[in-house]
Amino acid sequence: MVTAEQRNSGSSGGGSGRIATFPFGDYVVAAAVNGRLFAVALGDGTVRLIDSETLDAESLTARAHGGAALCLAADIDKGAFLSGGDDGKLVRIATVGTIETVAEVKGRWIEHVTTHAASGIRAYASGKDAYVLGKKSAEARKLTHATSVGGLAINPKGKRLAATHYNGVSLWWLATQSSEPTRLEWKGSHLQVTWSPDGDYVMTAMQENALHGWRLSDGEHMRMSGYAAKVRSMAFTRRGHYLATGGSERVICWPFTGGGPMGKAPTEFGGAGDSIVSAVAAHPLHDIVAAGFENGSVMLGQPGQPGAKLVMKANGNAITTLVWNPDGDKLLVGTEGGDVHVADFRPR
Predict the structure, then answer these.
(1) In what order do the strands lie in the sheet with 129-133?
(2) CB neighbour list of residue 59: distance below 8 Å, 6 or more residues apart
(3) pTM of the model
(4) What is the set of domains in the chain, with CATH numbers?
């Protein structure tokens, strides 16, 4: 049973739609969206761009890395993306076909990248170091941690960077060049990190089968345990009422209204036999969550409601990533085997 425990720190729609498939042939590491463009980063080092309106990917292939691509994010500029790879390069890919090396860390991997368009901030991580680039920065600001960075996220206002590592999270203010971080501590290895839409909660997925979270307004923190597998994907719904998570045979949705999830049971939806939820993505306009499973099936559901609509049937090709377009009428699905599907929910 998945449960949440309070920790006192002391200090609308949907449907099956039409589906376009692109057999790119290598593991889909990550996906992102910027305006009408989807991008997927592949294990072979390429980044493929797909126009969500025309669904044409024939001429939009960028050889971004000499080895594998490891991370991907929409850039701060319209129609562009940032990709980090095991060649130590942070690469900018633009729709006009240009590929530019934004930064390089020789002899190391760039494993995490995130951006905030409104504030013009780009952040990336390699080993123990996170780097911050402002829109007009000549050099990156280097933020060093005691252990390797496991995940990065910029808060909704674009003012703070969360970097996970062993034994917790460091929160850095981005407006100053010389500051010590606020440290949120909890034993264990913390990986993916996300902020709630109101910026009050910081949530991490851990190396073990659990989540941990902190409420910044009063220092309370919480542990969500009992998952069947490691939580590799989590997403807040558009207004922050629920946090949807993978890691179990159904989509686990934690309530974040009325004081947060402490002491409350989660709601669940979906299910594909004994297959584990491997990816989730919250709809940008409605309280709907897309969920992908290790058996290749994809469903849409609503937190608080038990039912779910099947978008893709199981085919044995595990889902690695899901991304909605800004209008919420297209859903990109990336897979372990290299197939990319775009489900189109527009009326025929």
Answers:
(1) 112-116, 121-126, 129-133, 141-144
(2) none
(3) 0.93
(4) 3-344 (2.130.10.10)
